[in-house]
Each structure stands twice: as structure tokens, then as C-alpha cells.
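Same chain as my last thread, 266 residues:
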Amino acid sequence: MNLNELRRKHEELLNGPQQSGGTDFLSKFLKVDMGKNIIRILPWKDESKPFFSETNIHRLPTEDGGVKNYHCRKLENESCPICDFYFELWRMHKEMNLPRGQKSKYGNLATKIKPTPRYYMNVVDRRLLEADPNDPASAVKIFSTGQQVYRKILSDVLDPDYQDSDDPDNTTILSIENGNDYVIDLQKKGGYNNYDESKCRIKKTPAGTPQQNAVFMESLHDIHGMIKIGDYEEGRNAVETMRASLFEVTEGGDDGEAEFNQSVRV
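reply #2:
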């Protein structure tokens, strides 16, 4: 993906509408602590794909009270039963004619399963590299982030102030030989995670020694292959489970909503 394509993506983000695993899988991801986390964002191995991969994730409640990630099928222009159920829930909420701002179990569930943009990129965790410079492969992690930080990073990739005026196409902040580290500054604001102070470092540096750089590029995680859109039948079964829970009749009768269920279908 060249700079023009990245610019189009940036414009889309600014102006357009907008997985669970075991310990081994999770260990591949960057651990972001409170405060400043210094990373180096790595390019993809060639220009056939961008330095990031993107998805929309539905977070589905599980029977044990946990959450399961379901990659939205609309990523590949396929019908998504979770999206259909999401819009159906909001329709049911509106049909209750509640006072403005009043919540319902339909709206609450819709909010939980709303598709959320997520971006993945390969990065070098400076803390791990400094702790063991002789094992650069272990410092290469997957950084998973939302739109807020991704927009800031993409803006810096496109910012001419971070490019070499003699060679602007090859020395963005992603350059291994002459790029920029990035500071993920995680703070709390109003009880929520806030990344407003995250920014690119001004100084250009090599990502590592020539030997370390070679290992970094050999150790890239397959961020593009890790995104598998959700199976349709699995999604439909998840919808039926959520529907059954939503309209469960409690002892002593229901609240009138079980009857409404008779007119609802996936």
C-alpha cells in the first residue's frame, strides 16, 4: 500500500461512516501499561500489503459470562447474522416508545454486540529489546488498537514533517533504517482509557542494529492471515442463544416481551 492509498484510507477514517485464544496466542500481543510505552512500528515484508490489518469485531456474550470475538462477515461483503440482529435489537428498542435516554435490554445488548473497528500491526517493544538485545525476535509483538490511536499513527505516517525531503516515499516513520519510534501514552480520563498524548518521536533512528533489523523482519506475525471472518452458521447459532436469553421467562410470568418474540425472526 503506497502513500496515496494510505491517504485515501486516512480520509475515509476522518470523513466516512465509520479473538479469543490461549496464553500462547495472547503472548504474541503487546502489553500496554499505564503511562508511556515506547514501540517501533514495523512495515510489512513487502509492498503487497499495508503495515496494518483491520477488522470489525462483534463481542458476543458466552454462557460462562465471558466474551467471544466474532469478526464481522461484512469485511468480505458477506451477510452477517450478528449485524442483522444488532439492527433488529435497535428496532425493538424504538418500538417500545420509551422516553428519550431511557435504556432497555434490547438497546443494552445491541450496544454490547455493536461491530467495533480494530487494527493490528507488528511492533518492536523497546522494553523487551532493552531487557534482552540478543533476542530481538521476542521483542516483536502484535499491537492491537482501536480507531483513536490508529488515526494518530496513520496521520504521522502521512505527515511530511516525519519524512526525508530527499526521499519522501521511502523514509516515513515506518522505515527500518531511518524511521521514528512511537510513544503510546495510556492515561485515564473520566474512568476511561485515553491516548490523546500518544505521539511519534521527532528524532529519526534505525529500528535496531543491522542484525536486529533483519531478525525483526523475519519475525513478523501474520497479522493479515490472523483475521478470519465469522462462520455464518456459528453467528446464527449465537444469535439464537442471545435471543433465547433475551426473552427468557422468569418465574411468576414474563414482562410482556416473550409474546413480542413471536414476531421476531433472524
